[in-house]
Structure prediction request, 336 residues.
Amino acid sequence: MKVWLLPLLLISLIACSDNNGGKALDNYQQRLERVLDTEVANTPLPAAAPLAEPRDLKHPLPDLRLDLTDAYATRHCSLDTLIGERNSSLGKVYSASKQLSYELRFLSQLQHCLQQSWDNSALLNQLQQVYQQKQHSIDIAFNNMLLTDDTLRKELLGIRKALPLQAASGFSETWQALTELNRLQQYIAEQNWQAASQVDIEQQLQLLYRYNFVARLQYSLRAANHQLAQLNRLTEAVAPTTLCPQQRDSEQLQILANVFSKYFVSEIQLYTSELSRYQQQLWPLLQQLYQRTDLNTPLTLRFEQTYLDMRTELSQHVKWWQALNNQCPVKLTAQQ
Prediction:
């Protein structure tokens, strides 16, 4: 969306306050209410599209038991260590992410194992059957991680903490983590088990956990959309022509021009532009990860649809300022 009052190329040059986006929107609304001598009822933030519970999303992995009684064979393939890891007390309570990591390492090692020569055809046949079954179940393990991991779940649910007006910390790290998880998804699709097993899943989840950027972005989009809608209800009650009968200048118009320049241009447009940048770079990565899961629809509503709604509300609000600028002698201009 092009905002003629402020070229987007200049937004990054505009100074902003230390407040986060939610506080800036609240402050802007209060100033508009004072200068317009009207107010709008603040309504609660509507609930986001519901997400199914992890227990309803998790699918059990097939219980495959590899009975390798030939000690030489297990050592020869280095499967004995992996089997022992899975049967350990920690292995029996693996989280979904650690379970996925294990399955990928097992597939990688088993693939390497099958490329060797075998004299025992019965054992080779058993290994081949396990390999095929593991390949068929790896998508279950990957989706279990996406849908039930505690860190990812927190990101998808959102937290009530708005992002700052600009240069929010953790954006590049979040982009990196989501990109790496997408790369893992691609490796799995290509059955490149060696490359997939080398992806450090826990490290990517740790980056997401540290910054909570996706969770804050989701909340920020929803809150900004809601607050802009309230602002539009406020301005809809005030026709621009009533603010300047016979196009006469007034102290009220001068204050409005200051509110426009200092708060709307320098903070609100800056903030929504940053949210747009984050959304446009992070949502495609999230969509790629979740598009074939049961959470695709609610996540699309929480992120993409909310973002589009926010842009619509912003456009409507800009039109009110444009109408005021056209009908009253306020001479609104973008700061350089």
About this structure: The chain has two domains: 8-44+214-327, 62-212. Confidence is low (pLDDT under 50) at residues 1-17. The radius of gyration is 27 Å.
